[in-house]
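User: Predict the complex.
Assistant: Input components as received:
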Amino acid sequence: MRRIDDLSSFHAAREAGLAKLMPNVPRIAVGMGTCGTGNGAEAVYHAFADQIQGRGLGYKLVRTGCFGACSEEPLVNVRLPGKPLVVLHRVQASDVTAILDDIAAGRIPAELALCKIEEWDHITSHVQYGCDYREIPLWNEIPFFQGQKKLVLRHCGLISPLDIEEYIAVGGYEALYKVLIDSDPERVIEQIKLAKLRGRGGAGYLTGLKWEMMRKAQSGQKYLICNADEGDPGAYMNRNEIESDPHSLIEGMTIGGFVTGATEGILYVRAEYPLAVHRLQQAIEQAEGCGLLGENILGRGFSFKLSMVEGAGAFVCGEETALIRSLEGKAGRPTPRPPYPAQKGLYGKPTNINNVETWYNVAPIVIRGANWFQETGSAKSPGTKVFSLVGKVQRTGLVEMPLGTPLKTFVYDVGGGVAPGRSVKSVQTGGPSGGCIPQDMFDTPVDYETLAQLGSIMGSGGMVVMDEDNCMVDVARFFVEFTHSESCGKCVPCRSGLDQSLRILNKFTRGQATEADLVTLDEISRMIRDMSLCGLGQTAPNPVLTTIRHFRNEFEDHLRAKRCRAGVCEDLALSPCENSCPLHMNIPRFLELLKEDRTEDAFLSVILDNPLPASTGRVCQHPCDNRCRRAGVDDAVNMRDVHRFIADSAFADDALYARAMARLLAVRKAATGKKVAIIGAGPTGLACAYYLSLLGHEAVIYESNAAAGGMLRYALPDYRLPKDTLDREIGIIEGAGVKFVFNTVVGRDVMLNDLAGEYDAVFLSIGTWKESWVYLPGTELTGVIPALPFLEAVAKQQPVTVGRKVTVIGGGNAAIDSARTALRLGAEVTILYRRERKDMPAIPEETEAAEAEGAKIVFLAAPHRIVGDAEGRVKAIEAVKTRLGEYDSSGRRRPVPTGEVIRFACDTVVLAVGETVDLDFVKASGLKLQESGTMLEVDRYSLETSRKNFYAGGDLITGASNVSNAMGYGKKAARNIDQRLMAEKRWSQLWPDFEYAQSAPHHPSESGRHHVREVDAAVRAKTFHEATLGLTPVEAMEETCRCLRCDVRNGD
Amino acid sequence: MAAASSTHSLLRPEEQDFLDGLIRKHQGQPGMLLAILEAIQERQPNHYLQPEVLEYLAARTGIPGSQIYSVVTFYALFNLRPQGEHSVCICRGTACHTRGSRTLLERVKLQLGLQDGDDDGSADKVTATTADKKFTLRTVACFGQCALAPVVEVDHNILSHVNERALEREIDHLRENRDEAN
Amino acid sequence: MPNMISLRIDGELVRVEEGHTIFQAAEAAGKQIPGLCQMKGLSPVGACRLCVVELAGVNRLLPSCTTPAQEGMSVTTQSARIKSYRRMIVELLLAERNHICAVCVSNNHCELQALAMKLGVTHVRYTYAYRSFPVDTSHPRFVLDHNRCIVCTRCVRVCAEMEGAHVWDVMGRGVGSRLVCELNRSWGQASSCTGCGKCVQVCPTGALAEKGCAVEEMIKRGQSISRLAETRGGVL
């Protein structure tokens, strides 16, 4: 490469570069940052190279950096002369032949296309590729890139990082040229100050002020350092910046050297980034070869030398004084400031350290000016920041956004939210120095000050998204383990304080923590924050303090209930499935017992954990599937249908059933003489009464209806849960000694105060039986019926008038139940839901079954008004098409009405938008209410209300939920009531020892998951007979063999 | 200043020449000691720093022995014990952790027969070498490959989206190859 | 003639030479700020954090041993928060290693012990780590007992700065930090140790001691080192 020392040689280099960037032959650029290479880009590159050569094609093939959409790697750019640049994604070596065939025919392989670029603002120049390919979206039209502004990443993934001419082609080194020609360092510093460029390493200090201090320092030798010791786990933007565009860093530092008076620059790069080190070395050599670095740059008499030092694995060296000591050949232990590096730094000389990304902002400010820079970002923090969006989002990668963009934009819009069926919990920002921001605070703009107010920091820009499967206590422990191991050890608060913090956090994850521990942890964290010598110690407690602040419940759960809801802390649960089950059924046990062909034992195991297995086996939402480890192999074990099989088998075998019941009663404890009243014979009340009875108490259920079951009997249709099956199950509960008082309404026929006098404890579990009303013109017309009364009437076999064309409004289980019931009554059914399918609360299998039976579902339709005929009967319904707008605090998009109205002719409208608590009852009870004012307040752990010995559980305190959740509350309440009444923990005494194999299978079954058999849709839609048939014995047995026995702990 | 340098060294002449060359190359440069130590370790077949090498370095450079030892034990990169033939490095960064890298680590520990007592303990990172010196298991705080979580590096090859089975197969494969070579 | 500046310490007006630290200003005014790593005559490192003070108008707590006194400062050396934090630090130290006073050569002559008593530490709320540390008795005249060491680095500094031998340094990091002699030699094998014993004299606890001392018999003369530094005109 020739030396560049004047404009004409500059232009020559530029032209040469442009000819490479936009040749008149097809150009193929394979993304080969570490991400791409890790995903197979090397093989892709070689495939291209081999074939291009083998087929004698004259195409230009280069390696480029990373464009940022890391989860789409390998990325390959293809550009035909005169046409837009097209980014292909997830390219494998096997795709190469077809791609080249397409290119040879002048086509673009559209199926592999992610997006196209017609023109690109390189900030230091502008490039026009060409217009075409209407079917391919522009890069900033696709969700991942929408809203992004590529300033720092202006060249990444587009130019070759190995070729200085391509860098020059897009305006590289022009800023340096300008600065040297103008020869006015003060003016450059003014621009940087005016631009309010803040350090991008995390502290956010004004770069201009640092440079000014450095310039003013009187000294011969001065040093510039680039901190590329990116140690934050979860952050990798600096790595990408260097690998994809090393020259921007070199240029930035050279400019910095000139204006501050430093003649030597050092790049401190961590050893874990070998590719970055390599690319930087090559770039330095090229720059020196051109005379753009080293002696007498551009012939202007300014000399600047850049050398590289590799870090050796110490996170603390990201702190500037530690970094300097490291360069001086000492251990990387921070030293006191003052003196500041700008006064006395490396070897006692004035030194200025800036983060990689800060240097990348220099050339743009020089070329486009401070005013231009201020147009982006927030008032206090202009410009952009590159964030690494990782963790549980659908789309991970590097995201460059203007500062001040709200957090929810990153999580939902760019990242696409979390996996379907999961809910997002928090975002951890700023790495180990940062904190966790809970989901309800996602409106927060991402900026230095706003994040600091929440107890976090922006730091290097790491953003780790966490969902319900992440335990925040474990997250706190994880970070403290990291900072503890990276602590330099010099100051006592950090060295010893973090050690004690880790001990306490370990106690939490093992269920051994005490109340005092939580206080000590909080106290010591504040001390470490206030007393530590350097930034590592000062910020290390942030993860702990923010999780205690925003997720205190999780700490308390670990402490008081010894529960880890996320299922992470293994010492606190038997197995992931058991932990997720609201009833905490010992699932591995019943699977193993059935596997050993011991149906009676399996049935006893099941009914000891859950008195309504045939019901839950048919209608439970199966949260156990979500965490089943078998899903990592193929699919979760079908535990729900196995326990249904066990129950059904027992009910079909009278002798077995009788023996099991006898054994159940043998477990029952002696009469205690205590009496408990339970209000409501729904699943919650039934579960509570059952366990109380087994514990020896007299349990009496007061029920307003004529029979027990609650929603199971009066809302769930027969085709889901046959009534005789339910009756059989309630027989178990009666068999356990529970008494019922039917047709009795508490508050009318008997008063709570009366019960208080007669019973030792009262448990309220009346559920949610009021239909949520929707305010809609036309609801007074004949033919508009709320869902619950409709389903209840059908269950009670009362006359119900349903027309021929039914519209159901809603997306939950009640809506689907209503729809499928209406179908069976001979109607044509349309369901209107105002959001999308994935947002529906109903169990997906139910929704699919409804559609198979002929129901139509119209999504994104919100009811607008119901139209009546002259006689006041429903004749049509009008709905407004919605589109999904902003994310609300539930993590779903709010439906926003568009102008479009659609109309459905119908004669019946079923309103199934939700169920609520009976507010009159709640208010009349005299018990304290929750802040919302609509539900009773109970102690989180004991379920006691504000009145002594009065407890409440189920939908009454949670709002409308599902059967197993409801039963879980009943079971928990029984345990707590018993403990209070007997002043003793007797719960575990209820379970006999079941002896069964205690080893994990060496060769678990290879078979896939068995799904429950369904009656043919056309057949079943005409009757109320059961729609699903359950597993066959062979299928059930195979399912038990698929279980990996996560409950076994001996490491076998 | 260190005491008068010892001309008595356990190192062979070529080794001494190599070290002298390194010292000459980096003399007076910032980061000299790190660069020298990194180069020495890279070249050593078992990737560790031998005591006699450190003695020689102290004597030749005048850097106090205690300072050299301080540096060698402060940074996670440096090993004072011979490393195994194959290195398995599990990333324990945040993204990898949220995607289950701790389970991977426990799994590999079991598979390689490494108990907690085998930990070298320096710099508080997991570094354990199997008794037959064939495998060294270590962790790294973060590879910077977060989008590919969980990440494991086996002998300088980065594997992405690693699950337990894949890693088990990979290690078995290395074991078999080695056995064949024997 | 050095420039004099004035500042307020605990309400009292104090005059001190420009360039001196807040700690030195306090000392000159007869106020004792606790500290275990600092020592007159040695460069300050700000490691123990016991000497922190509050400064009016500044949010953070500042280590007085390394912060230069400035004209017009208003410093508070004792506040409820500072006292509470100092106690925590001492408790952390006591829990970190094995400080068993009853059998220690420095019992009743120990700076850590004295400070604990002064701060009113009656019990330690943290978990004792009971780490196992060796005792190096290889030197003919001295003993290094790591169990009593608080890694204050006074010994490192006095050997490097005053004696010029740099025998000691700190190896490892975090709670694994430990004093190291040369290339991890036993003290008796050290080739650069001059046997001057300065490290023993400056050590605030019983970690470094003279052989031949039984329990309670090790009395140190750290002031002699400070005087030596002054007469040499060395570090402030």
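The CA atoms of residues 8 and 96 of chain B lie 49 Å apart.
Let me know if you want any component modeled separately.
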